[in-house]
Amino acid sequence: MAVQAVDHVVTRDHVVWGFGPEMEPVLEVEPGSVVRLETNDCFTGQIRTEADLVTDIDFGRVNSATGPVAVKGAEPGDSLIVELLEVTPGPRGFATLIPEFGQLIDQVRAPLTQVFEVDGDTIRMNERISFPLRPMVGVVGVATGGEEVSNAYAGTHGGNLDDHLHGPGTRLYFPVRQPGGMFAVGDMHASMGDGEICGTGVEIEGEVVVRFGLLKGKHSTWPLCERDGDWIAHGTSSGDYREALQAATEEAARLLVDRHGFSIEEAFIFLSVACDVGVCQACQPSPFSAIARVVVPKIAACCTPFG
Q1: How far apart are CA 209 and CA 207, in angstroms?
Q2: pLDDT tens for residues 200-214?
């Protein structure tokens, strides 16, 4: 599936179900190494056809992440850089309607499973409905500094961030809280819309090729991502999008002030006039995290996340 030359492979049978402080690596690599990680779909193979319903699965086997991979030299206070070189879905994915999940749940029949076929750069929902492939990874994270967090949830370590911008070409910066960082990835989507309002994207197995790097002595509170024209701050909450938005805007302002010399007043105004607030995850009702992002354009005054 992958075309990028790789130094190591981690197969999809090496999984974790949460991110904690005592993770043990399945692989240790040098900075600069390229690794291919095979990922399971979020249901870990429990849903294959429209007859397989989410109400019948084992929720203890949801959102596995492949890894973890330790990077030599990564220490608390650093940022672990993970460049997503390839995100390659398999040929067949699924979405589900889950009882009591989502903004339209009172208007639909649930449970229900929808099958999707991936054909090149196109996703086929049925004979009438097709749309472009937009692959991304939902669960991306590193070891926590405290208690273990299930892969169902997001936090300052990453986890179930569900940001559709986490696709090929994006560079992710994770604050290192344990030696080696301990990176793991899973929950691939062939496509997922902002908000993921029914609770699933096109859930699919696949392969992720990453290049690891280190930024010594600099880190954010939440994971950041960087693209060619912008960098993106995140914030999460236990379920209230307004709280997640507050956290994301405070994170973006903190970076502008601490790393780029903005005054807090300049940061506040700049965030309002030149930056874009967005929603990653806001499926309600649901028990899962809400995630917000702030997209900051790369201008001369703040051309990188850290200065």
Answers
A1: 7
A2: 999 999 999 999 999
